[in-house]
Amino acid sequence: MRSARLTILAISNPPMKILVTGAAGRLGSVVCRRLHDAGHEVRATDRTRDPSLPVPVIVADLTMREVAYPLVEGMEGIIHLGNIPDAHRTDAQTTYTVNTAANIHLFQAAAESGVRRIVFASSVQAVSGTRTLADDVPSVLPHLPLDGAIPACPGNTYGLSKQAGEDALAFYARTHQLHAVALRFPWLISRARIEHIFQRGNGTSVDPDKAAYSRPDEGLSFLAFDDAAALAEAALLRAPAGYRCFMPAHPRGRLHGLRPGEIARRYFPGVPHKRDLDALGSLFHLDEIEQVLGWRPGNPE
Ligand SMILES: NC(=O)c1ccc[n+]([C@@H]2O[C@H](COP(=O)([O-])OP(=O)(O)OC[C@H]3O[C@@H](n4cnc5c(N)ncnc54)[C@H](O)[C@@H]3O)[C@@H](O)[C@H]2O)c1
Predict the structure, then answer these.
(1) pLDDT in tens, 153-194
(2) Domain of 195: which CATH number?
(3) Fewest C-beta atoms under 10 Å: which of 11, 15, 239, 285?
(4) Number of structural domains, the chain?
(5) 22 alpha carbon – ligand 1 mean position (Å)
(6) Host domain of residue 254
């Protein structure tokens, strides 16, 4: 049964024909179910199958140029998630070449075929490199809080492939008048895991001894899969013409019980603050996403 919220969304936004790449993946499966429940016509594709999805998955490898054209044919929008999702799955060269090939094949075919709306899953790793909080290496961040205007400065070829994907999308938005959005997702996790993180450290803490949590590129914030899926949908339906880049996050991405201003002072010394971080309550500035797309993460506590 559909929720009241989804019903309202479906009425205010007429159903669209939407291609979802990476549909069998962790985020893709959540996105597919959400769009299907909202009444959209979903075409799902991936390199692998997922029989549990409400729509069949068209099995295709986007590194092959010719597969992209039939996939985008007749579509009004694309949510492009089909990439190698981090720097550790394979070697550096393969990560870069697979992702950039998939991205350019899909974007070029979409532009030629008249698809006007594209959302691309970029990553916080396009920005933050692989510096860890324990490093003495100075941060590359030009300012805090983080937002979509931070220039890319990746520290591995996964982040480099996301930077190239953002550049390619901006290029097609400019040359083909697209409504195009790159979403620099942080570490995506289940809502149950977020609750566990907050419970474990007196309600506010993330364990700094755990490497996965102590990396600024993944650990200073995170986002629930369902919030990320809701954002991808909002970006596809509501983005204005042109190219936009956003940097979403859970609004309470704290570390070891520290307030955001203290995190910044300890781990990002010398990085200028554009806003009072403690008043903002976060190292991420989410207002622009809300203003442009009408999205905020749900259940922040
Ligand atoms: N999970 C995270 O923490 C996170 C954080 C930031 C960004 N992202 C991005 O979000 C997207 C989805 O991530 P996820 O966590 O669901 O990853 P995932 O690995 O679960 O899903 C990605 C899917 O893409 C498919 N895929 C990869 N290369 C492909 C290709 N060449 N052709 C067709 N399909 C291909 C895979 O088979 C997989 O099912 C990715 O683009 C990832 O880079 C994820």
Answers:
(1) 888 899 999 999 999 999 999 999 999 999 999 889 888 877
(2) 3.40.50.720
(3) 11
(4) 1
(5) 6
(6) 4-293
